[in-house]
Task: inverse folding
């Protein structure tokens, strides 16, 4: 698998990242067998935390896990939550979001997610089923979630940019 897209550094609270132990990162799912083995150990009634690491590998952890812990503190290609279902002898992702306030991935991180899911043999929707739009306010520097296409900072009422701007040092150098 060839990684693609922007890399996202962790931009959440420093105290959460300080508690990360790379040995306790989310389970790497590289093959259909890896997923089957992981799924057989889980109660699949609620969504799971996921990241796509910079190698393009899907990592999964329980929903209430921090994304930065799931990633072992490393940068990611995407992050959010996923829900799985087993139907007609095949596993599917039924819901997937980019909801991660620790990494704040852009909605255009979907191709990395799709590629990782296809590598594992999971059926999936054509894009995020719940897109979260993150923006950093140029005036007060706070991170915002844009709701209902209202690009106004909830902290200071300043206009928010239309383009993703959470972390200027995140790179876009993995593009093929």
Result:
């Amino acid at each position: 698998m060839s990684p693609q897209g922007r890399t996202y550094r962790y931009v959440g609270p420093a105290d959460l990242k300080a508690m990360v132990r790379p040995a306790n990162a989310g389970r790497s799912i590289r093959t259909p067998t890896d997923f089957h083995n992981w799924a057989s150990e889980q109660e699949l009634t609620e969504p799971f935390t996921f990241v796509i690491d910079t190698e393009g590998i899907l990592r999964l952890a329980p929903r209430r896990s921090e994304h930065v812990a799931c990633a072992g503190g490393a940068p990611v290609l995407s992050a959010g939550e996923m829900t799985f279902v087993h139907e007609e002898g095949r596993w599917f992702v039924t819901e997937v979001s980019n909801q991660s306030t620790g990494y704040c991935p852009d909605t255009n991180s979907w191709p990395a997610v799709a590629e990782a899911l296809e590598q594992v043999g999971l059926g999936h929707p054509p894009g995020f089923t719940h897109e979260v739009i993150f923006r950093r306010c140029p005036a007060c520097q706070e991170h915002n979630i844009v709701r209902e296409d209202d690009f106004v900072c909830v902290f200071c009422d300043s206009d928010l940019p239309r383009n993703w701007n959470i972390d200027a040092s995140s790179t876009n150098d993995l593009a093929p």
